Structures are given as structure tokens and as C-alpha cells.
């Protein structure tokens, strides 16, 4: 083997580690700025879950600072980032609960245990003049959108649409709670907790 062939093979073996060391050194500062933004960081046996750590600290802070307690609307909007379909279904459940509370506070002897529960609730709300027809139409359209999300296979809603849906649901919930006597409106969730 000649010295020239030896030099070429030596360079061939050393060039990639040299490029790697150069890349790490030159990217050290930009990478160190990105690490705090990462949700998960794994290096050998060290695994840091920023999301879990933040969640634990937030729960501890709620005990120390009660004003940090998040309301249902904020929780659903936050969950819309990662699980928009689930957030929509949960938002509708809050509408259903508020409508049921309103009906029970104004109407005696009405059974809501039917196969077409939501349609039945809508009819009662309108026939008892608890909501007007425009509000009844909003109730119906929100229900139909929820059904599409809940029953269509592979139907995925975007984050922005989920947040918009949640906002509409909570406007309707706020209105329904404003019509419900205060003794019943706070029985399940608390009007302050879901109205904001």
C-alpha cells in the first residue's frame, strides 16, 4: 500500500466523524434553544417528559393558588389541539347536561330516557318556550355536527373547527344556564366554572 492510498483511506475513515463533530459544534446554540420547546427529549437512558412535568406542577399550583383552576371550556379548548374529535363530543355533553338541567327545573313529569334523546330535548326546549326557534336550530345543528364526528369512520376535525364548535357550545350553555334557576344550575358543574 502506497502512502497516497493510505492517506485516502485514512481521510475516508475520518471525514464523517469530523463532519459530525463540526455539525454538532456549529448547531449547538440553535439546538439548545429548541430543547425547552420540546415535549419529549430522549438521550440514552434519560427521558424527560416536559408535558407530564408541566401537568404535575400545574395541579400542585391549583392547590396553592385556587384562581389557577381551569374551567371546562378552557380544558376542552386545550384538548382540541391534540384530540379535536374528543373535545367536540365532550363539549356536546356539556350542552346536553345544561339542557337537561333547564328542562328538569321547568318541567315536571318529563322523561328524557328515549332512543332519540337529543331530538326529544330539542322539542321540549322549543315547545315549552324555553328557547326560541333560532336557538333550537343552533341546538339541532350542533347535535348533528357532533353526530358526524361521533359516528363517521375516519372523520377528523381540524383544531380551529373544534375550537369554534366549543365556543358555540359554551355560548349556548351560558344561555341555558341563564334560564335555569341557580339552585339547579350549580348542581353538577357550577355555573361559574363553565360560563366563562
Describe this structure in words.
By secondary structure, this protein is mainly α. It has helices spanning 3-34, 50-64, 72-79, 84-106, 117-127, 133-151, 159-179, 182-185, 191-195; strands spanning 40-43, 46-49. The protein has a two-stranded antiparallel ribbon with strand order 1-2. It is elongated. Mean pLDDT is 76; it is low at 183-196. The chain starts with a helix and ends with a helix. It is 70% helix and 4% strand.
Features:
single chain, 196 residues, mainly alpha, two-stranded antiparallel ribbon, 9 helices, 2 strands, elongated
Order of helices and strands: HEEHHHHHHHH
Overall shape: elongated
Helical coverage, percent range: over 70%
Radius of gyration: 28 Å
Largest sheet: 2 strands, antiparallel
Task: Count up the helices.
Answer: 9
Low-pLDDT ranges: 183-196
Report strand order across the widest sheet: 1-2
Which secondary-structure class do the elements indicate?
mainly alpha
The separation of the N and C termini measures 80 Å
Mean pLDDT: 76
Number of strands: 2
Q: Roughly what fraction of the amino acids lie in strands?
A: under 5%
Amino acid at each position: 500500500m502506497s502512502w497516497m492510498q493510505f492517506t485516502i483511506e485514512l481521510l475516508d475513515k475520518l471525514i464523517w466523524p469530523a463532519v459530525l463533530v463540526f455539525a454538532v459544534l456549529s448547531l449547538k446554540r440553535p439546538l439548545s434553544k429548541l430543547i425547552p420547546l420540546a415535549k419529549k427529549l430522549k438521550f440514552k437512558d434519560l427521558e424527560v417528559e416536559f408535558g407530564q412535568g408541566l401537568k404535575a406542577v400545574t395541579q400542585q399550583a391549583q392547590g396553592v393558588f385556587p384562581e389557577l383552576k381551569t374551567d371546562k371550556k378552557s380544558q376542552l379548548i386545550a384538548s382540541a389541539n391534540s384530540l379535536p374529535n374528543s373535545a367536540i363530543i365532550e363539549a356536546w355533553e356539556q350542552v346536553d347536561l345544561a339542557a337537561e338541567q333547564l328542562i328538569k327545573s321547568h318541567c315536571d313529569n318529563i322523561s328524557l330516557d328515549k332512543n332519540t334523546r337529543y331530538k326529544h330535548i330539542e322539542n321540549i326546549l322549543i315547545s315549552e318556550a324555553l328557547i326560541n326557534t333560532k336557538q333550537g336550530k343552533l341546538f339541532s345543528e350542533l347535535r348533528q355536527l357532533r353526530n358526524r364526528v361521533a359516528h363517521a369512520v375516519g372523520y377528523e376535525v381540524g383544531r380551529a373547527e373544534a375550537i369554534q364548535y366549543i365556543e358555540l357550545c359554551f355560548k349556548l350553555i351560558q344561555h341555558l344556564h341563564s334560564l335555569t334557576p341557580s339552585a339547579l344550575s350549580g348542581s353538577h358543574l357550577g355555573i361559574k366554572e363553565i360560563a366563562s
